[in-house]
Amino acid sequence: MIGRVYGRLTVIAASSPTVYDCGSVHKHWLCRCECGVEKSVSQNKLRQGKTISCGCAKSALTRQRHAAFRGPNFWARVDKRGDDECWEWIGGSVHPQHGYAYVGYEGRRYRSHRLAYELTMGQVPSHLSVLHRCDNKLCCNPKHLYVGTHEDNMRDMTERSRRININTGVANRGSTGKLSRHEFDEIKVRYAAGGVTQRTLAEEYGISTDYASKITRGVRFRSN
Question: Taking the model in full, what pTM does it have?
Fold first, then answer.
């Protein structure tokens, strides 16, 4: 056995056998993995191919699977539209209270927009936040995202909520953000005809990009 190779393991010496109460004896061999770790493995598991490394092969496979998710599989759960439009997360796991979507990756729980930004722009330090320019919490379009501090996030939230209520699209001061039924239907028709983005419509009608996105996706008109 000494010198034989099983997967990433090379047998280097005999190891203490396992003796069971019934009198059965299972031989073990000390093996050195390609990564340098030494491990005692039963002879049966080596010959049957059940153990091929110290555990690093499984870890490498897990990393490969996560890498695959980070790339095409992640973006398959995002509704990509025009470059300047909101790309909403459609993969589920949306928090019922604050409206952010969550994605699990390598033992961590990410907000979908943060993972989208890191996939595109690189890792963001843990003390910094990834913020939305568009007020759409499900948006994963990197062009709508930027890095800021917690203070930036609080200030941005305060300023935006003072101008526009992102849930209804109505300005909190005055009625300039309130849409008539005609304007509401007009937005849907213009967007369906093409040639105009959600952001452009939002700016033109004085509503949030989030609300413009909801209108184009079929949200019902509210009269109050």
Answer: 0.46
Q: Which residues contact 66 (CB under 8 A, 6 or more apart)?
A: 105, 106
Q: Could you read off the pLDDT of 23-66 as tens digits, one per residue?
A: 888 899 999 998 889 999 999 999 999 898 888 777 666 555 55
**Residue bearing tokens 């190891």:** 15
Tokens of 147: 């890095």
Q: How open is the CA angle 45-50-56, to the nearest 5 degrees?
A: 115
- Give me the residue label for tokens 């995002």: 78
3-state SS string over 107-121? CEEEEHHHHHHHHHH
Task: Please check whether residue 69 is in contact with residue 82, taking contact to mean a CB–CB distance below 8 angstroms.
Answer: no
DSSP string, 155-197: HHHHHHHHH--TTT---SSSSTTPPPHHHHHHHHHHHHHSS--
**Token pair belonging to 122:** 């690189």
How many beta carbons lie within 10 A of that of residue 118, not counting itself?
Answer: 17
CB 37 within 8 A of CB 54: yes
Q: Which of 31, 72, 75, 71 is nearest to 53 (CA)?
A: 31
Angle at 82 between CA 77 and CA 84, to 5 degrees: 105
